[in-house]
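User: Modeling request: complex.
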Amino acid sequence: MIYLQLFFSFLQVGLFSIGGGYAAMPLIKSEVVSGHGWLSMSEFTDLITIAEMTPGPIAVNSATFVGIRIAGIPGAVIATMGCILPSLLLVSLLAFIYYRYKKVSVLQSILGSLRPAVVALIAAAGLSILQLVVFNDGIVNISNLDWIGITIFIVAFITLRKKKWNPIFIMILCGITGLVLNLFMKLLQQ
Amino acid sequence: METKSKTKTLMKLFLSTLYISFFTFGGGFVIITFMKKKFVDELNWISEDEMLDLTALAQSSPGAIAVNAAVLVGWRVAGFAGMLTAVIGTILPPMLILTIISFFYSAFVSNIYAALLLKGMQAGVAAVILDVVCDLGSNIMKMHRFYYIIIMLAAFIAVFFFEINVIYIILAAALFGIVLEILQHTRRKQI
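Assistant: Request completed. Predicted assembly structure:
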């Protein structure tokens, strides 16, 4: 039963994530966090962090990670199969049409109005991760602000906008800064 | 002789995709660049124009760009067997790496220092994603099409404030695109 749920959840991720890169992220979040509750928002954010630092598509990384945590290695294989199956079928069909008619333009025009929607979905998923950073435990309340997280986010964001450094390098730097600042604050409190 | 050369091609395809997938960090566009270098420039299996078309197809189809590109390159190089070979070569590295990481993850997060490290990195990943969103969003704004901006705003409000299922939003946007295409098509005919 759990195998079927994993399979169909990731089948939907594979079928509806269009545009690559981060496009799968909002879908994975809606299936895995909001839909089935397989991961908490914090675990999901860790997963995105891990996916960012390791090779491979976010969807395949997530399918493996969630699959193993829910149902071991068979779960990982089944979830991954689910997420690549739409690609195998649809892209094979498209390849056939392409070599027959050599036309890509109709698809491109549909993609035109899909792209703004996908950008909005990624923005929304990014903001829910930011919410987790700004508020302790992600609970929205003024008394609950995580000042270290907010500072690191602002500095990292400005650096990325101005300098275009490697994102993996930025993330590692943020991790180390977070660790050092939090330990320092703990020492001060004692 | 035939089968021998085909096995050799498949082997080469498998090792190439495996190698490319192992060493490309950072999403579909990066992997397509590497595939172009390998299959167009190095092995001469695919022409440059064809690779551009395949890239457009891989981007506009559902699913991960890397997997889509593997399907297309695989079919082109060695038919059905080639498609399976290229896909397995592409998904094997991330599966192996994530399997190893997920076994260590529970132990890792229960360590206080590791948890603090990850907490800092969460701030970093939020910055990385919102930086990408700024780039993508400003590209859409630069196109100066009023209805693109409307789609973007409507989709954002629907998912962030009303928590409408992501799939419905994607379907609605696709439907909007199809209707618009038909409208423009009939208008062109009338003129």
